[in-house]
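User: Quick one: structure for sequence A, then sequence B.

Assistant: Sequence A:
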Amino acid sequence: MSRSDDDPRPATYYHLARAVFYREYLIFVRYPANAIGGIVVALFFFGVLFYGGQLLAGQALTDSLEGIIVGYFLWTLSIGAYSSVSNDIGSEVQWGTLERHITTPFGFAPVALLKGVAKVIRTFLTSAIVLAVMLVVTGTWLSIDPITVVVVAGLAITSVLGLGFAAGGITVLYKRIGNWLNLLQFGFIVLISAPVLDMPWTRFLPLAHGSALLQRAMVDGVRLWEFGLGDLALLVGVAVGYLLGGYVVFHYATRRARRLGVLGDY
């Protein structure tokens, strides 16, 4: 039996991606106050860090200012990537719309992953504005090769997306654990400033190795193709490993929630 032109066509992942990215675009355009508020808050905290540090540390802060700016830029990206997944899943649980996503032909995990990628792209735009303002305010110059920065920073925060998936899965099971999940955001500061040279094992933690490479790229001007093959392979391996690990945790957490009958409870 042949399909007529009037028959509905099955949706593909292309249609799903287009719908998710268009939705994120509409939210960004129609509610700009929220995006602007995020930029203002990020700059406020940097202002406190910068001017407060000048009063307390003086020259010591000036000597390490480039590294602080790069680290803060990566931290804002990490917060955006992590919260985009964990908070979004938490919101779906509160609104009672999580089961609707579960019953889609794609399943909730691909939808959540695409929504996370869309929010990461938006976070890149807002964090770029924050970075530009930080450079102007402090009078600092950094080497910003767009390809190198996007690839290294993107792979670095991919591991955080995996943590966001794991946190989202725990939220589905235990519901209101926002305070514990928010605590992890401050742990990103420790990971970004991890001493990878003195403690090489920390390179296998999320953000740590990516942060070290991003420092070399933006402070020392190292381009993407100038990094060693081992450094790039480790960066990709950590990103993929934590993303898959978080995805597996989320998958089994939602499956356990369905088995316990608490998926739609709140």
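Sequence B:
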Amino acid sequence: MNAVKEIIWSVINNNINLEAEKWLEDFKQSPDQSLQVAKVFVMLPRKTGKLSVAINEDQQKALDTAGYGYIRNWTIDRLSRVWLLSNLSLPDKEQLYSTLERLFLSAEVNEAVALYSALPFLPYPEIWVKRCAEGIRSNIGSVLEAIMENNPYPAAYLDEAAWNQLVLKAFFTEKNIKLIVGLDERANLQLALTLVDYAKERWAAGRQVNLQLWRMVGRFINAEIFEDLKIGLQHYDKTEQRAIALAVAESECQPAKDYINTFPELKLALADGSLNWNSL
């Protein structure tokens, strides 16, 4: 993580003036960070500005390799706040937790976005699980996106119930499902059953289902789910039929596979390999 912090600092250096750079460095060297962090955290955008970060080719390559290439879409104040939080030097995890918890409780929207964006960079990752789960209950779109999209923390540390809540909330709030880190690795039977119920509610209301939903169902198709999938195959649009067919192809449910083969177009699409989750 230290190497990543160094890259991030080099990006920040390229995007702020000397006055802001000295201001951040002075804070990093300060012996009483716990007394200053709230004020510095709030003031930071006035020092750094709020423009999108500019990242050179070498920095982007290094960030991509480390798995943090997504910060290219951040603003400089967001990135600087994450750097500031990840470099806090406090005596122990209890003081770190209490200090950041105060920031969470008083945060306005952009501050909350930075706080949740910082979760993968903070020490003692186990102590932020409850805070992350609390964040999923937010109704603020940008805060949810900071938690759900391009954030490796939830997949790595949330328990199954909180993870499933995150995924379901992402569908409810129409977030970019493809940007959820660990989506395939954290798929589970309970989530599949919940998502099928959600799809049935959408069908009953005459609404479309996000095709990525079926990506998390395929491996868990059983006799019960198969009966529900028939509804989607028989009554809805061709695009969703193709998504369901792809899910069935990833399952071990032979009756469902046999049923898909009764649809010549779907059978052909699966056979020629043209179907995949990125193409849907």
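The chain has a mean pLDDT of 93. DSSP finds 16 helices and no strands in the chain.

User: Thanks, that's what I needed.
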